[in-house]
Structures are given as structure tokens and as C-alpha cells.
Amino acid sequence: MLIRFKKTFEKIAMGLLSFMPEGKDLKKLQETIQLYETEENWQLFLYKRGDDFIGLIGVELLDDEAIVHHVSVNPSFRNEGIGKEMVLKMSSLIGNRTVCPNETTKPFIEKCIHPNEGTDL
């Protein structure tokens, strides 16, 4: 289940973001969370299974596009299809916008949207 980010989830979100390649720098993590907290068109969703938050997806909503800036799954739950499930569920939440990756998320998003053409991650 995708749940919209709230301030009370900040530490959980930072932990999940830290699993991304660029997520090792604490200052960068804080700036990223600040962006999702203050910019209305930047939306962060956490994926909850049972009592645990195990993934997140962050998008920037433009008029016709939703740019996926962050996709992260706890390493203990990888290769279970959770990332793909988050992308598909998020797609249903963004209306008629086209899902577009940024450079960091491009290989993964292409794999989710075009599974037979994607790259291995």
C-alpha cells in the first residue's frame, strides 16, 4: 500500500532513500526530504507491507508528466516486484500524466514499463 509522506515518517524515508546510490550523504538526504516537504508538486510515497515501510517512490508532478526521481526498496525485500508494484500504483495516482524517469531512475523505470526491453538491475 502506498502512503503519502508525512513529517512523522521523515526518519523512515531518509533510511529508505539512503539505499539509493546517491543517498549516502546526510546533507543531501536532508535536502531531498525538505524538497518533498515544501514543494507541492514534489510528492513522496512510502510503501507499507503489514507494519513495515519497505519502499518509497518520489515524483515531481508537471502538467503532462510525472518525473520519477526516487525509487528505493529495503534490500531485504528486493527482487519481490515491490519496485514495479510501486511504479504501477503510483501511475494510477497521477491521473493522465506520463511516467518519465530521471537519469538515476531511468534503467529501473524502463524495466517496469517495458519489461522485455529493460536492463538488469
Describe this structure in words.
It holds the Pfam family Acetyltransf_1. GO terms for molecular function: acyltransferase activity. The protein contains 4 helices and 5 strands. It is α+β, with helices and mostly antiparallel strands and 121 residues long. α3 packs across α4. The longest helix is centred in the N-terminal third of the chain and has 13 residues, at 26-38. The chain is globular and about 30 Å long. It starts with a strand and ends in an 8-residue tail after the last helix. The relative contact order is 0.16.
What is shown here, in short?
This protein is α+β, with helices and mostly antiparallel strands and 121 residues long. Helix content is 34%, strand content 28%. It has helices at residues 10-17, 26-38, 82-93, 106-113; strands at residues 2-4, 42-49, 52-61, 65-73, 98-101.
